[in-house]
Specification:
Pfam families: CDP-OH_P_transf. InterPro entries: CDP-alcohol_PTase-I (IPR050324), CDP-OH_P_trans (IPR000462), CDP-OH_PTrfase_TM_dom (IPR043130), Phosphatidylglycerol_P_synth (IPR004570). It is an enzyme of class 2 (transferase). About 80% of the residues lie in helices and about 0% in strands. With about 180 residues, the chain is mainly α.
Length: about 180
């Protein structure tokens, strides 16, 4: 192991951190889950900082970092949706969008050219809203009740940006594939 592997190890630890967070959410120990969310959030910032600061960016890190984010968000959406804290329509929309993007990226990678993932601004906003929604829903269910209107607005904002960013990915990558041509 080398120092340049530290960001990847942090990402792997964040993936593993998903398990106790899901367990705490299932057990409705929301205050403890929030603490682990904070650790996960800090680790996300730390691995990115180390990779960029010291030039430790790698192809594996480019895969592990979003995988860790998606594992935590998807599992949190599923659990909170199952508990009725997030509407099922939003859980299904978020999952459908992510499956469409991953499926499209795999198809593009094997049918056109290697995918060079570059998240759009609307996609980054969507991820930020998803994270905020999970954190505020867990906070509301746990230590600090929040105004219903705040969570309601966040639900609709997350739904809207999920739709727009999913459609944008399909539009952009379909046009790229059309211009590059398909490999057979």
């Amino acid at each position: 192991m080398q120092l340049r592997d530290i960001p990847n190890l942090i990402s792997i630890l964040r993936i593993l951190l998903t398990l106790p967070i899901v367990w705490l959410l299932l057990e409705q120990q929301f205050s403890h889950a929030l603490i682990l969310f904070a650790v996960a959030g800090f680790s996300d910032g730390l691995d990115g900082y180390l990779a960029k600061r010291f030039g430790w960016q790698s192809y594996l890190g480019g895969l592990l970092d979003p995988l860790a984010d998606k594992a935590l968000l998807m599992s949190s959406f599923l659990v909170l949706g199952g508990q009725g804290l997030i509407p099922i329509w939003l859980v299904l929309l978020v999952i459908f969008r992510d499956l469409t993007i991953v499926g499209g990226a795999l198809y593009y990678n094997f049918s056109v050219e290697e995918v060079d993932a570059d998240p759009s601004l609307i996609s980054k906003l969507n991820t930020l809203l998803q994270i905020m929604l999970v954190l505020l829903v867990v906070t509301d269910a746990g230590p600090f009740p929040l105004p219903d209107l705040l969570i309601e607005w966040l639900i609709w904002g997350t739904g809207l940006t999920t739709l727009i960013s999913g459609a944008a990915y399909v539009w952009i990558w379909s046009n790229k594939a059309r211009k590059k041509g398909w490999r057979i």
